Amino acid sequence: MTKKRNRTKKPIPLVAPPSTKKRQKQSNDENKKKRNSHSQFSNTSESLKLIRDYHTLNKRLEQNARDDGIDCEQRKQNAEKIRLEQQAMGGIEKYQQASMYGAKSSKFVCAHWVEPLLKEHIFTPSTTDPLNKIDTAIRPRILDVGAIDNQYLQYDWFDAVPIDLNAQHKSVVQADFFDYAHAHIEQHQKKKNKPFDAIVLSLVLNFQGDPRRRGDMLALAADARLLRSGGLVYVALPSASLDNSRYCDEDYLIQVCETLGLKVVERKRSAKLALLAFQQTSGHAASSGFQAYNVASKTFRYTKEMSRAPAKAGDTRNNFAVMLKSSTLAR
């Protein structure tokens, strides 16, 4: 009789080994968790909430600064309290990180919107160049306000100066737009520099808390000493700022810009943004071009002032507005 061999049976696993596809998915999930562990935000909603809360505190700061019903000491105490709230949130640094997180998760790239319009309205292809390239004898220059980084390094036919209040990237110049514009206009009056060909205000107006300062920002962007005749101004805003506003909408914002000599050349929408491009019309207001800003007094004077649009009904509407109001005190 032939004896049967004693074969050692392998234990049956309680859980079947994952397939190759399943192992790959687990690996991807682990990598995603690792990436998120280095991030300050777990999702876009969290970063957007911080941005909204920071904007709200900015508005409170602006309202406090213009509250005539309190004395200087109370105004100072209120401002310190609000700034402490901002610091508790992580300050401007955390706000910038939230903006960068949102930008990385967004499909919108501002440069992809800016470059084609710049090519269309500022420069035409050279007729003498056999390769039909842009004429490089005069390189366009753009000022990108509130820049996260320099998105324009991928283009070799124009130059960009990206600035931000609290620069988070080595390619960005740390500067406040009002201070930068003041210095540039001052130097221009001494004939030491030239105006820009385009100015980009992407998600900048909504960061500013005071409706009058928003108008002043647009006025500086349209100023003939900062923007050349025929130059472009790009404005990108969250759609909700206009669609859900109690005091403004897209048409009213265009009216404000037209008062500054800016003619709309494109209006479009992305998933969550309202995109408006304007061109400065030549010969507006005076032969020297539009100028509402007084360098010596650091004030604005408008020949036509504009208040907020008539209020719309609705308890859930926001208070976004843009106003043109002449100022009498230096800022």
What does this structure look like?
By secondary structure, this protein is α/β, with parallel strands linked by helices. The chain folds into two domains: 29-98; 107-300, Vaccinia Virus protein VP39 (Rossmann fold), CATH 3.40.50. The chain has nine helices and nine strands. The strands form two sheets. It has a seven-stranded mixed beta sheet with strand order 3-2-1-4-5-7-6, sandwiched between helices. The protein has a two-stranded antiparallel sheet with strand order 8-9.
In short:
The chain has 331 residues and is α/β, with parallel strands linked by helices. The protein has helices at residues 20-37, 44-65, 72-88, 91-105, 110-121, 177-189, 211-222, 239-243, 250-259, and strands at residues 141-145, 159-164, 173-174, 196-202, 227-238, 262-269, 273-280, 293-294, 299-300.
Layout of secondary structure:
Elements: H1 20-37, H2 44-65, H3 72-88, H4 91-105, H5 110-121, E1 141-145, E2 159-164, E3 173-174, H6 177-189, E4 196-202, H7 211-222, E5 227-238, H8 239-243, H9 250-259, E6 262-269, E7 273-280, E8 293-294, E9 299-300
Parallel strand pairs: 1-2, 1-4, 2-3, 4-5
Antiparallel strand pairs: 5-7, 6-7, 8-9
Helix pairs in contact: 2-3, 2-4
Average pLDDT works out at 80
CATH architecture of the largest domain: 3-Layer(aba) Sandwich
Distance between the termini: 109 Å
The biggest beta sheet is recorded as: 7 strands, mixed
CATH topology of the largest domain: Rossmann fold
Order of helices and strands: HHHHHEEEHEHEHHEEEE
Q: Give the strand order of the largest sheet, numbering strands 1, 2, ... along the chain.
A: 3-2-1-4-5-7-6
> What is the strand content?
15-25%
Low-confidence blocks of residues: 8-18, 30-38, 126-136
State the assembly state of the protein chains: single chain
How many helices does DSSP assign?
A: 9
What's the gyration radius in Å? 26 Å
Count of discrete structural domains = 2
Helical residue percent band: 25-40%
CATH H-level name of the largest domain... which superfamily? Vaccinia Virus protein VP39
